[in-house]
Amino acid sequence: MRKLLLLTLALLFISISHATTDTVRVSNNKFTPATVNATVGDTILWIWVEGFHTTTSLGIPAGAEPWNGDLTTAGSSFKYKLTKTGTYNYWCAIHESAMEGSLQVTEILPVTLAAFSITAASNNANIQWHTVNEINIAYYTIKRSSDGTNFKDIGQVKATNKTNSNTYNFTDKTIPATDKYVYYYLDIADKDGSHTLSAIRSFKNVFAKTGLLHYVSPNPVRGTDHLMLQFYADKPGKLLVKLFNASGTLVKQVQLDAGEGINNGHFHMGALAAGTYILQCTLDGEKETRQIIVQ
Fold it and tell me: Which of 75, 152, 239, 257 is the most buried (most CB within 10 A)?
């Protein structure tokens, strides 16, 4: 009975102290970060940066309240408290599938993640985390992503279940050479099959063989005037995007908000005649061009 009471009190303490607010920036047709790991009781805060957008729920867990908030002017923000576990998918109702995000909401388990960091180990990444109050935990699964949205398992570490301080390490030796930034989180499982997720952490791969642009899509452009740009930034700033026609005349230019890491930007080219164009992107002194075919 005493052990049950202590466990209940520990869970209550963790539940109270764990609740936090996760911020999502809303700009140039993207939510940053596009994926957020959270636990029941947390609050999501969307903050307007630029553009004319909404945050609007799509598929959400049973029993959760749908939402629809406008984010259209400086100072605009919208809050939503998470009350159910599961995946919350949402989008901007104005830009729809071109601007989507998700919230992965899990339970609170009897473990406190005191620290979670990623550091360079030669051309590998060393993932280290410290825990306290570790009770009934089975294992830690390490997840990795190249875009901060789509994650896969890369390893698993068994829990020691010591109630005092615990330190764990895992070395990722399989980072793709094409990924300048990679993202990690921990999936923590207890012995009863319940899971909770850590926050997502980014890691800069200084050995990556890549430029400013990760990809431009679609190319060739058929039946649309939208280009999706995925690009890297080493610090917050603005990506200057210019489009030139075959004779070198500037057709259009825009600036896209950039945060540290990998960014997803949306470039509305407008109605263009079929032909060959040059897309020029500049950020923090780095410039890269791509040939764009409009059919």
Answer: 239
CB atoms within 10 A of CB 80: 20
Give the tens place of pLDDT for each residue, 4-36: 443 443 443 344 345 799 999 998 788 999 999
At residue 13, the pLDDT reads 39
Q: In this structure, what token pair is assigned to residue 229?
A: 């740009």
> Among 146, 201, 142, 148, which residue's Cα sits nearest to residue 175?
146
213-294 is classed CATH 2.60.40.1930: yes
Query: Residues 38, 45: contact at Cβ < 8 Å?
Result: no
CATH number of 1-108: 2.60.40.420
Q: What is the mean pLDDT of residues 199-207?
A: 95
Distance CA 259, CA 215 (A): 17
Whole-number percent of the chain with pLDDT over 70: 94
Is residue 85 scored above 50 in pLDDT? yes
Domains 1-108 and 213-294 share a fold: yes
Tokens of 293: 């075919």
Of the candidates 258, 171, 264, which has an alpha carbon nearest to the alpha carbon of residue 226?
264
Distance between CA atoms of 266 and 278, rounded to whole angstroms? 16
The CATH code that applies to domain 109-210 is 2.60.40.10
**Residues across the chain:** 295
Starting from the edge strand earliest in sequence, which strands make up the sheet with 43-48, in order? Answer: 30-32, 21-27, 43-48, 77-81
Structure token pair of residue 240 = 């200057």
